[in-house]
Design goal:
Elements: H1 2-7, H2 24-30, H3 49-58
């Protein structure tokens, strides 16, 4: 993260995509179904937006906005 802070211009924006642990499908994949999913890499984690927000502020970022965007399974109504 410190590298990002060094290269991000003042007023710049940072965007990244990570699995959202509050999404029920992601929660299941990362907990009790973890051993059944070969497509989830062992070092991949799911995030919670308030933890990311807190970390960014701790690292010195200001005006932090963490905006969730979920991609849902096609069978979810």
């Amino acid at each position: 993260m410190n590298v990002i802070k060094q290269i991000l211009s003042p007023g710049g924006k940072l965007a990244f995509a990570e699995p959202n642990m509050l999404n029920p499908q992601i929660f299941a994949e990362r907990t009790f179904l973890r051993n059944h999913n070969k497509y989830v890499s062992p070092d991949e984690i799911a995030v919670e937006r308030w933890k990311i927000n807190k970390l960014m502020i701790k690292l010195g970022f200001i005006n932090v906005q963490v905006i969730p965007f979920d991609l849902l399974h096609p069978l979810v109504p």
